[in-house]
């Protein structure tokens, strides 16, 4: 590219300056910087090239030249002579489009960035920042000197000017490395001082507008959050609380006017941290504040008070407020709801950021700023009661105090502080660009935006990477580092307090402090937890060393489960039981996915850990394979075939059933784990559990028949197992028994009496062997749905069943047959049985009106009498309002009335039958959906109850840890038991409305 002028070739080219804008050469010419070759021109051009975004800086300079007009020559000459001005101005223009716009609107403001002693002083190009008192005077004078009422415009301009100066000093080392920059802490402190001065000015304006010549009320403005801690961002809401001597209308109007003025001139003022939040009074007296915090405040409100500081208004009243509040802050961890509130806060934080942008969120994402701040504040709340050195507001100061006190290792403290300051620096640069409140990194594929961020954050190339590459590597490293330290922060000192003396840090946690820390993290019996930790870490050799490395992260994951006490105990039992298995600790060490999932299982379920103790190989399937979670690598049919084949290898029925139990145990552990971890929908869980039960029945029946039939003669009868109830509907839960009927048929030459006698012996042996006491969950085979119930024979011939149902079938027996299906034994006999009962359950012309009325009468009696004593009818998952029985009886009543003309209703599955009901328009689609949702919700809840309690139960617990665990096990997002219960009650209430409509019409 050729440029006008003979000397132009000696100037650095546009490309070498890093300029890519196609108008860059023309812009430089317009500014007069390509007119001649002099050293000052070269210095200016090279300084411009070092701006984070040289093209943006050049474009803004052109606009600034146009705004200055004839005064441009003065600025151009100053840039040639003043290296400090070059660094500050180009740093701002290459980093902040918004501050560039401010300069265009107020072009003479560039003089604020000139070196204080003039360009001739080659030794002192530095600018100094005004003190807090000087800032207050500036803003107060601005208000006093405004006589035309244009407060907002003048205050906004002054505030932007002070931001301009601060940002210029902060950014100048990007352009001129010898210029002194500002530590992160100093930036936050000056921004807080600036906010204090701005709030004071806004209060001054508000008092003028509201009170006029009358005396204003005594009003104190308490800074909270980052402003209160003097670690404010460039762009942030400023959280405040208002305290007044008289919380009347005048004080409230002044506070409201302050918020309005500040919102227009400086920043949004947020009073949402006040008592009762946005629903509470904007202004309260000191006594009212004190009474609220003593009686009603939640833990998060005391956590917020950690950073409370008088910022503006009546200083004496502000100090009195802080003096009254802080003592309550340091006793907050003694409150009964402290742990519940802390866990709820953690859930809320985790839910704030959508998963698809979590990796870009440097504040709320995993390993982000909130992780550090939350961890530090929790440790302060726990230990600050006994250690006054922790009673500081700033996160960086608190980290230093925690390190000095031994609550965090000194090296970890330094690392976490560095990571925190690095992430805050990126946050500042992102906000400066457009003066917008943001915490979002550019998309990972936006190289230009990331390259700008790297340059703006003083990131330099290294031997392996350019600045962009260094930023990417650093972000990845910082995220992992913060995540790791967030886990280690709480637990490494705990391990050191119970571990060998060689591991202890000087000034480590005392036993009392360790117990307080564990209690704050959700452990209800911290003394027992410390015992478990000591047992796990004080092992000799490799196991003890590996546990010491593993436990910080495992305990961190456990603390996020509903029952960390039970989880830690289960982990200890599992570790002791698998002490000889080298793969166990190695798998947990090498696979974070396996370890994290195992902790979630152990801290939520009492059912699965018992299975894992006897089927530990399932733990190895907790990892991810090439096509997804290994827990899902098998299918129910393949498992059933394997179980039957394994049992078939043994002639002894006891050993055969033991083999079947072993495979069933493994499969139950696999299904339950996948269910609790959210990998299997409830319908697949029910089908998989049904397949296992069916396979066990078939394997047991085969084993008993083998031992009862000699090799030289065939069995005297064929026998089939007919499933009833949820087994017949392929909808078994973890706590379900197997409801069955046995049907037989004599072979040629054998009397029915002998056939029934032999088949009865087979059936009773199957039931007895399966019910034999075992370490596994029980296997109860229930035959009470047979004809005549408990008084009828255990086994009948096909002809006997046909005769009974033709003559004696009761309405409840007809209803029970709706779910009859063959599952084991002679398939042909089972098929003929089902064809026979079709005439009973789906008769031509439909069941009689008397039978339907009887079903309705029995249902009313069940509702009135069958609910267990003391059970809550609203939350009993089986017999309660809108529960499983309600939905299933409703579906079955519709089958009884309409199956004779709607063949699709010939189905044993509740959900599939509901689909057929919708297609046939027997109910409105909305009503069908209400029934479907109720059935799914109640089934999830019922399964979750077994997973959590470890035994069959149908009653949901009341609010608390157990309900939270049920919510987690049922897959409720966030695991909040209260929300889960509210949803359950809402869904079942709507379903009950449909049930009443069907049974009442």
Automatic annotation (TrEMBL):
Superkingdom to which the source organism belongs: Bacteria
Location of the region described as Adenylyl transferase in the Swiss-Prot/TrEMBL record: 504-1001
GO molecular function: [glutamate-ammonia-ligase] adenylyltransferase activity; [glutamine synthetase]-adenylyl-L-tyrosine phosphorylase activity
Domain annotation Glutamate-ammonia ligase adenylyltransferase repeated: ranges: 88-319, 596-834
Cofactor: Mg(2+)
Gene3D superfamilies attached to this UniProt entry: Beta Polymerase, domain 2, Nucleotidyltransferases domain 2
Start and end residues of each PII-uridylyltransferase/Glutamine-synthetase adenylyltransferase domain: 344-490, 864-995
Region named Adenylyl removase: 1-494
EC number: 2.7.7.89, 2.7.7.42
Keyword Iron: no
Keywords assigned: ATP-binding, Magnesium, Multifunctional enzyme, Nucleotide-binding, Nucleotidyltransferase, Transferase
Catalytic activity: [glutamine synthetase]-L-tyrosine + ATP = [glutamine synthetase]-O(4)-(5'-adenylyl)-L-tyrosine + diphosphate; [glutamine synthetase]-O(4)-(5'-adenylyl)-L-tyrosine + phosphate = [glutamine synthetase]-L-tyrosine + ADP
Family: Belongs to the GlnE family.
Biological role: Involved in the regulation of glutamine synthetase GlnA, a key enzyme in the process to assimilate ammonia. When cellular nitrogen levels are high, the C-terminal adenylyl transferase (AT) inactivates GlnA by covalent transfer of an adenylyl group from ATP to specific tyrosine residue of GlnA, thus reducing its activity. Conversely, when nitrogen levels are low, the N-terminal adenylyl removase (AR) activates GlnA by removing the adenylyl group by phosphorolysis, increasing its activity.
Protein name in the entry: Bifunctional glutamine synthetase adenylyltransferase/adenylyl-removing enzyme
Organism: [Mycobacterium] crassicus
